[in-house]
């Protein structure tokens, strides 16, 4: 999803947002504490978008008891996907660590010494002629 271009990304994000706001949070959204943070602007955290998108796709597949997963699909989704993703997102040192209710803080990206350390060395711009 992160590699989609606008307007495809906007449409995909809207579908994900509807699921997060109308299914995930009303049913599984637990109280926000310093030990279990959540950002009310979660869509501004690419890591959260990526993880929630995967959770949503798995939910779509495993909540269909007529699919290959059968009647145990929903239980598998809870065990294999919901718990680990929510635990990871809401970890005190996770993606929402700097956010507090009513206060969003973008995550600082770790620094790297070179954008492409194994690429060709930068050279002079090509001559126009």
Helix-strand blueprint:
Layout lengths: L7 H21 L17 H17 L10 H17 L40
Helix pairs in contact: 1-2, 2-3
Mean pLDDT: 91
Radius of gyration: 19 Å
Number of strands: 0
Contiguous low-pLDDT stretches (5 residues minimum) are: none
Which structural class do you get from the secondary structure elements?
A: mainly alpha
Describe the structure using short key phrases.
129 residues; mainly alpha; extended
Structural overview:
With 129 residues, the protein is mainly alpha-helical. It contains 3 helices and no strands. The chain has helices spanning 8-28, 46-62, 73-89.
Structure summary:
By secondary structure, the chain is mainly alpha-helical. It has three helices and no strands.
């Amino acid at each position: 999803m992160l590699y989609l271009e606008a307007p495809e990304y906007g449409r995909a994000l809207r579908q994900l947002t509807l699921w997060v706001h109308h299914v995930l949070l009303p049913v599984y959204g637990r109280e926000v504490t310093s030990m279990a943070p959540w950002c009310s602007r979660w869509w501004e955290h690419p890591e959260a978008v990526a993880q929630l998108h995967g959770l949503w796709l798995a939910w779509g597949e495993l909540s269909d008891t007529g699919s290959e997963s059968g009647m145990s699909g929903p239980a598998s989704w809870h065990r294999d996907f919901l718990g680990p993703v929510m635990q990871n997102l809401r970890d005190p040192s996770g993606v929402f660590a700097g956010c507090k209710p009513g206060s969003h803080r973008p995550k600082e990206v770790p620094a790297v010494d070179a954008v492409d350390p194994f690429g060709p060395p930068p050279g002079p711009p090509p001559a126009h002629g």
